[in-house]
Amino acid sequence: MLYQALTAVFCILSAFSALAAAQTASNASLLDPSLYKNVNVSRGLVYHYYYSPPSQVGRPTLLLLHGFPSTSYDWRHQVAFFQDEGYGLVVPDMLGYGGTAKPVDPEFYESSLISRDMVDLLDAENVNETIVIGHDWGSKIVGRLANYFPERFSAFAFFSLGYFPPAVLERSYAELNNITEQVFGYGIFGYWGFFSTEGADNIIESHLDSFFDVTFPADNIFWITDFAPPGALQAWLEANRSTAAGSYITPEERASQIDAMRDEGMTAALCWYEIMTSTIERDDDQGIPQENLTIKKPVFLGAALEDYVAVAATQIAAILQVSENTTTIQQYDSGHWVILEAKDQVNSDLLSWIENL
């Protein structure tokens, strides 16, 4: 009897051990370090990117573009899923992040230049046509790729942030904040001003745990009260406040991302905001060909209903205004980090959309 009980316990422990090992292996394989490459793009900057060619005949390659304050690691759940489905993947650390170059002159971050960088990456892998998918500022680049290089892409997908119309920046940053305060009751772009202020990088780097909490909160209302409005984020950080982070990020992932931000610093990443609060991006957008201001190929928008900066209703309205082709819109009960928080539904919806193109 004792022998049988001990055998049962041993079997249970072995099963748990095997499950844990399988889970560890699965997590480790999400972004295989051996599949990363470096390439010098045409303007002389080094980009670090993940590349996996299609493993099934007829499967296209997907270009996945992350936003602030992240790296290609943001796409870990999509990479694992679509790689298993046989799709090719090009997943760069965007300019200012990860293993990619980190210039601190904001003019390096003009969308036309970064769009050209993305095409250079595709050329390096001889990918002639692809589907591009973005989140956050990665979505802004998706839109500019549609503006500048529509012939290189068969479809365009946006998550959280949709198409960013150049006309928005015809108004000054101050005007935009005033308008959003009147419409929503708080200035949704207020944090841009803080990010564009000299010394913001040092404040963030001195309070990385506090910054992580409010950037990836379990309760998305914090973006209304303590993230978006002018002055709110700086006050939060300087008080070193904390809150529970979202459960969609494990403690190990949190530690890894905070370590990366500490090692890389925040100076370069904040340039993505400096071009928005100055005239750099507005002036750059003047080069968009007028005939490309609308998107003539299929579009997917994944709107996050609890994103209180990239407000779902405004993103849907913007995408419908510019899309001249089939537009697929999915809405998720999620905050801004929809590709993490609603990963399974996102993957399923994207796969269905791609298979029906």
UniProtKB/TrEMBL annotation:
Residues 60-160 form the AB hydrolase-1 domain. Residues 1-22 form the signal peptide. Gene3D superfamilies: alpha/beta hydrolase (3.40.50.1820). Transmembrane segments: none annotated. Belongs to the AB hydrolase superfamily. Epoxide hydrolase family. This is Alpha/beta-hydrolase. Keywords: Hydrolase, Signal.
